[in-house]
Design brief:
The chain is α/β, with parallel strands linked by helices. It has 2 domains: 138 residues, 3-Layer(aba) Sandwich (Rossmann fold); 185 residues, Dihydrodipicolinate Reductase, domain 2. The chain is 30% helix and 23% strand. The protein contains 9 helices and 13 strands. The strands form 2 sheets. Strands 3-4-2-1-5-6-7 form a 7-stranded mixed sheet, with helices on both faces. Strands 9-8-10-13-12-11 form a 6-stranded mixed sheet. Strand 5, helix 2 and strand 6 form a beta-alpha-beta unit. Helix 1 packs across helix 9 and helix 4 crosses helix 9. The longest helix is centred in the middle third of the chain and has 17 residues. It starts with a strand and ends in a 7-residue tail after the last helix.
Length: 332
């Protein structure tokens, strides 16, 4: 395939390059696009230097576009790119469009069938959640889900990670901590505010988890409530999840299901202090799941903890996995 990356200089764009190389994706030609100020710079891919190009106005000369340059740009250009290329978009621009499949390959690859050259990559928080939730939903029937997130600075891109590093340094040196990317200083702080507040008091980030979970799992009866919190880590989003199921569920049964779930690493040995951590999940393709225990409120309830690399399964890896599906008959 001829592959184009839009937003190649961003945090997700850089991860897309690594994932394409690591997974030996069949790239016959790679085109890298970014803003005009980055044009002419080079990026190394498979031993060669590839020049970054300014994004042109019309269709791109590639088979598949991996877009990670923000919702407003995607809304403007993705329909144009889709005239000649399959577009896998990492923004929220098309996730709720009923004609655009929202894909996590381990869960709903079949939803790709009949796509119209435009495919949405889910929100990073949702992607990490459903990797653990969907296998349990299939086995026991999830009815109500309550999620509290611990979202890293990488969720705001390279600028968020840089602001955390610079702010931490300033804090330790006794200097004022500046914040532009985040609504408050992030070092040594947690911020229960990600994206804009909605009329119901939830933020858009929190509502995305509801909307996207129902769409990906193909079940609008599953109720989801989320509190999204930014924490001062560089990478990996973690989530504390409580689920009430329709059918009786045991810790042992949940462990059995999750131990066989694709893309999931069961890390659940509290006696030996083994459980999901941003430290161990950083750079890992699989999502870590652990701290599985019976909920003390719901009869058929479980609590568990999830950690997944926001830049990988939450973004770049999932997009490349979707592109891999395009090589298979299911996507035709």
């Amino acid at each position: 395939m001829k592959v184009g990356i839009v937003g190649a200089t961003g945090a997700v764009g850089q991860e897309l390059l690594k994932v394409l190389e690591d997974r030996n994706f069949p790239v016959s030609e790679l085109r890298l696009y970014a803003s005009s100020r980055s044009a002419g710079k080079t990026v190394r891919f498979r031993g060669k230097e590839i020049a970054i190009e300014a994004l042109p106005e019309g269709p791109l000369p590639v088979d598949v576009v991996l877009a990670s340059a923000g919702g407003s740009l995607s809304k403007q250009y993705a329909p144009v790119w889709a005239q000649k290329s399959v577009v896998i978009d990492n923004s929220s621009a098309f996730r709720y469009d009923p004609d655009v499949p929202l894909i996590v390959p381990e869960i709903n690859a079949q939803a790709l069938k009949g796509h119209k050259n435009l495919i949405a990559n889910p929100n990073c928080t949702t992607a990490i959640l459903v990797m653990a939730l969907y296998p349990l939903h299939e086995a026991f029937g999830a009815k109500r889900v309550i999620v509290s997130t611990y979202q890293s600075s990488s969720g705001a891109g390279a600028s968020g990670m840089q602001e955390l590093l610079e702010g931490t340094r300033a804090y330790l040196e006794g200097k004022p901590v500046q914040n532009k990317t985040f609504v408050h200083p992030l070092p040594f702080n947690v911020i229960p505010h990600i994206d804009s507040f909605q009329d119901n008091g939830y933020t858009k980030e929190e509502m995305k988890v509801l909307w996207e979970t129902q769409k990906i799992m193909g079940d609008s009866s599953v109720k989801v409530s989320c509190t999204a919190v930014r924490v001062p880590t560089l990478r990996v989003h973690s989530e504390a999840v409580t689920v009430e199921f329709d059918r009786p569920v045991s810790v042992e049964g949940a462990r059995e299901v999750l131990s066989q779930a694709p893309g999931v690493d069961l890390v659940d040995d509290p006696a030996n202090k083994l459980y999901p951590l941003p430290y161990t999940a950083t750079g890992k393709y699989n999502v870590e799941v652990g701290r599985i225990r019976k909920n003390l409120v719901f009869d058929n309830g479980l609590d568990f903890f999830v950690s997944g690399d926001q830049l990988l399964k939450g973004a770049a890896l999932n997009a490349v996995q979707i592109a891999e599906l395009l090589l298979e008959p299911v996507a035709k």
